[in-house]
Queue: 3 jobs
Job 1
Amino acid sequence: MSNEASRDEKTPWWEGVTRYQWLVLFIASLGWVFDTFEGQIFVTSMNEMMASLLPPDVPMEKRDAVAKLALGVFLIGGAVGGVFFGMLSDRIGRARTMIITILVYSIFTCMTAFSQEAWQMIVLRFFVAMGVGGEWAVASAMVAEVIPRWARVRSLGIFHATSTLGSYLAIAAGAFIVGNPAIQTEAIPDLNWRLAFGIGVLPALLTIWIRAKLKEPESWKRAQEVAKKDPTKRAGRIGDLFKGDLRRKTLVGVALASIGLATFWGVKIYGRDLMRGAAEREVVMQNEGSSVDSEAVLKANFSQIKKKEMTGHFLVMTGGLIGMLAFGPISERIGRRGAFSFFFVGVFASSALLFGLLTEKSVIFYWWALPVFGFLVSGIHSGYAIYFPELFPSRLRGTGGGLCFNLGRVIAAPVLFLTAWMQQSMGFTTNQTAAWLSGFFLLGLVIIRFAPETRGEDLPE
């Protein structure tokens, strides 16, 4: 079996990874797939959900505001769960905490299917987000600790990229369940989106496998032994993240995550909606001159438009899959700082073109533009899974990664409220709002100058 000393540049990165290590990567990734599905199913069905949970006379602007409130609460819930479960994983173990997080997001997603009012849905989304935020922090730490150093970056890139599969599942649910008029019944006219949320309970079955197969990483066990002998090395203490050399690492991590998460909900999702807007314009133009008004035309072509919307989502996520897989090899060649800088510049340029200069194009245009955009805007997120575990010692790895990634959610949440204000009070269009928000990527170029370079280094003990 390959080891660190006998490896050279020609040795494939996967050579020497054991069966158990592959199993850890597979189970962690599967949890992240379902984690992403639980988050994205709201995005693919929020238009229909808002129409169901709010009175029919509520204007579209109010529905959009409620949807943004739900997204903001989701970000805050993810932050709470990420920090809490990250700390818990440093104290009681990665595998046991992963089981808890999966149960949390599965059960509360299923409960969302029974919401009767918007406030109920929003409260439940908070608890779903707690599990979602926690699972990422725990799983990324476990993969980093179990996979050998030579394969760690590629494995963490694969781990984070599997989120695309969760988005694909949500897209499929949006296209074939939420957007399927055959599922509707007279007794339950909004059965579509409720059924999509109801199947969210299925990931709970994964916890049985985790319980049977996974064991705690050796580095975590060593950290526990050290903590017993030295109380100053106790695991999972947030205050320790802001002491000594860890302070700069923590602040840089939070800042990087804030940029990626603020733009995820304020820029990336708008990219998907470009295809829907183009499809709506084409449908209206095809019926121009008829006696049927535009609203009726759009309603009559709902299924077709919904599938185009999901196609746009698919294109963005497919480009994102490639981008997330590419971040690891790029960061191995030019360093973590260089890779983040590359993606920040690229996504700023693509966002400016897509939302600012090249608006209201045809559906055909978006077939090639959206994958490029997705590659750049999603690739950054893979960097978090790779970089954050490299910043913190074992006793704080779950806590540090969870705090950085999920405190970024808290900082990003006001951006959602800002976008609603820009559109409702300032009269900005969706494209104009997204174009302005893309300026956050330039801020990333400033932040990355303060980030430590970790390429080629072992995980800190």
Job 2
Amino acid sequence: MIHNVIPESVPGIVFLSGGLSEEDASSILNELNKIPKEISMKLSFSYGRALQYSTIKAWDGKDENVEIVQEVFEGVCRNNSLACLGDYIPKRTAKSSENLHVKNYLY
């Protein structure tokens, strides 16, 4: 499928979360990594908001939240690590499914 449109000389493709919810970003990455490995390119991700959003919300600017923040961030990283292997099982919650798109966002 993907090999029909992308030359074999491309060593890898890095996907962005593009304002997807954390859950959608992990789920899509997971499905991409289930593509039969008849291609040699590496499929990976470069997620900003989809890695940081729940972590920053949990922190809330308070030093006393550091332990909670570490647990939240570890969980998000674990999800995406599993998704890189095609082994992620979605656990939809209202929090993880929150759309992170910011209308008219300027970089």
Job 3
Amino acid sequence: MVSKWKTKLYDVLETPGGGHAGKIVDAFLVVLIVSNVVMVTLHTVQRLAIRYGAFFWYFELFSVIIFSIEYVLRMWICTQNAPYRHPVFGRIRYFFSPLAIIDLIAITPFILPMLIPVDLIFMRMLRLLRLLRLLKLGRYSDAIKTMAALFKSKKEEIAVSLTMSIILLLIASALMFAIENGAQPEAFSSIPAAMWWGAMTMTTVGYGDVYPVTPAGKVLAGVIALLGISLFILPAGIIAAGYAAEIQKKKDERVICSKCGNVLS
């Protein structure tokens, strides 16, 4: 009987689609997660926090109860999955899996202050950690799963392009420090300080709070801006191409019923 319920719960919580009950549970949890993000955001408005403090607290309590029940149930049913089959070591492996850690983080900011006395600054940091509940959407969103698969398949290309950008940033900052330090010792006091200018220039944000004043510095800034645009286009192109490939892969993997024509998976 227990094994039967465990199998049913596994189908609802872990199996893609999960039948009608699974879709209802997924939709409820998605709404709850998004509502939590909205509540955490609104709670930072002091006027609202004072006026609706009790409502925020009870909503947080309700959310933590739901997330805690979900976490406990997932720990219980994880042995239905082959990599976590062992009743003890399987659950330990699942406990340290990325999704389980995210589930734990979702409830920790509410429970931890009750167990350990913490100062106000640390309390604020814990409350902001509730925003990480947004990561739980990865369980229920096909789009997020697709993006995760994309970054996994293209991690080498993305890492190379980001490494090239970092190298250019370091070289540009070092050159600008050497050129501008004499003219602007406060603005370009060190290479790390010059890296702020480099990052803003390479990304074409250009706040204008720090900029070169020497002719050589202006020429270098122009060259770095052009190179920066070229380098930052690379990750965008890799991600766009990879996303299109993942979408096509999902379309190729779809199973269509020969009788009704509906997509089965």
